[in-house]
Amino acid sequence: METKLLGGCAEDIAKAAELIKNGYVVGIPTETVYGLGADALNEQAVRAVFAAKDRPADNPLIVHIADFSDAEKYASYIPELARKLAEKFCPGPLTMIFPKKDIIPSVTSGGLDTVGIRVPSHEVMHRIIVESGCPIAAPSANLSGLPSPTCAEHVMDDMQGRIAAVLDGGSSEFGVESTVICFENEDTVRILRPGAVTREMLLEICGEVNIDPAVLKELENGETAASPGMKYIHYSPKANVVVVEGNTENFREFISRNNGENVYSLIYGSEEMDSDCKYMAYGETAEEQAHLLFQRLRELDEAEAKTVYVRPPSKEGIGLAVYNRLIRAAGFEVIRV
Ligand code: AMP
Ligand code: MG
Questions:
Q1: What is the pLDDT of residues 223-272, one digit of tens each?
Q2: What is residue 1's predicted lDDT score, i.e. its pLDDT?
Q3: 143 CB less than 6 Å from ligand 1?
Q4: Which of 99-103, 164-168, 236-240 has the lowest mean pLDDT?
Q5: Does residue 41 sit in the same domain as residue 107?
Q6: Centroid of ligand 2 to alpha carbon of 295 (angstroms)
Q7: In the list 141, 147, 221, 284, which could disulfide-bond 269, CB 3.0-4.6 Å?
Q8: How far is the centre of ligand 2, averaged over its atoms, from the C-alpha of 288 (Å)?
Q9: Cβ of 76: how many Cβ atoms within 10 Å?
Q10: From the CB of residue 235, how many other CB atoms can be counted at a distance below 10 Å?
Q11: What is the pLDDT of residue 163?
């Protein structure tokens, strides 16, 4: 199949919407990362999404809707707290998990009896949902296990020949996937996956915000993940990624001892490295790091890096999301210097 590259004009948005309505899979822009969109109610179309990504069948897809009021069509129960959160954070990068109605096929929910629902704020994505008339199931548009795509070119790199089209809507605003939460009681939520709607922001509305243990550590044998995606190797480039914690001086000393032909480091924007070390920077603030992490991991593969030593972000705010992705890219390999 030839994968068409569409632009963001009205005609191309209409084409993307038409393709999705007719059961095809299209790479689509969102404010978090690019998604692989298909009609969430069409089992065959959803199967094609799993096939294009090589995604394990038990990893559920998030269902994207145009307005939170549509959530009633797909969720059998919506707690009052969810309505309050929706008022504040929808549209935006927040996915809420609800018990699902039967209309959501089991393939879409990865066999679970719940469904994750999100209202994206990206204007083009919003118009594709409205014009297709479909709730859109859309996981990140990378091959399973690879870093998520934050521009149309990344989607083309992974999906060329596997899907009908990719719509180029510019680079993703946030650069990390949505925050995924579930409801524990009437004023408590649990973060299953951190994102741009941070714990601090959720605490403005919720009495309590718990962080699922799988966010920051590797699951032990036999432990099950509340969010199935957290149990898989993820966000990994081909290079061996290692997180190195410690101050700049100790880090530089560590790099000079471990330098080699295909050794790179991924550092903060303000750090200076010795001239014989290969490095890339991924910004200074957690927001910049979120925006650049996946792009840099892809660039490091292009540069044929074999080992990448990475400076970790702070775990505050959106930094928690960056840290969560990074330790998975690193297969939980963290060194302190
Ligand atoms: P992605 O599609 O790549 O953004 O990944 C979606 C994430 O949301 C994965 O980590 C899924 O496991 C998680 N997710 C989606 N639906 C549910 C659900 N019903 N219950 C728990 N986690 C979910
Ligand atoms: Mg993903």
A1: 777 888 877 777 888 999 999 999 999 999 999 999 999 999 999 988 88
A2: 87
A3: no
A4: 236-240
A5: yes
A6: 14
A7: 284
A8: 20
A9: 15
A10: 24
A11: 98
* Whether 206 and 272 share a structural domain: no
- Distinct helix (H) and strand (E) counts, the chain: 9, 16
Asked, for residue 131, whether it belongs to a domain, the answer is yes
Residue 277 region by backbone torsions, left for phi larger than 0, else alpha for psi between -120 and 50, else beta: beta
Q: What amino acid is encoded at 115 in this protein?
A: V
215 has a pLDDT exceeding 90: yes
> Which of 248, 252, 266, 245 lies closest to 314 in space, CA to CA?
245
Structural domains counted in the chain? 2
Q: Tell me if 56 CB under 6 Å of ligand 1.
A: no
Strands (E), 194-333: 208-211, 240-245, 263-267, 278-281, 307-310
Question: Is there a domain that residue 49 lies in?
Answer: yes
Probe residue for ligand 1, chosen from 61, 117, 234 as the CB with the greatest number of ligand atoms within 8 Å: 61
Could you tell me if 205 and 314 lie in one domain? no
Clarify whether residues 244 and 208 are in a common domain.
Answer: no
Backbone phi and psi for residue 84, each to the nearest 5 degrees, phi listed first = -65, -45
Domain that holds residue 12: 4-215
Q: Which of 215, 231, 262 is the last residue of a domain?
A: 215
Separation between Cα atoms, residue 251 and residue 253, nearest integer Å: 5
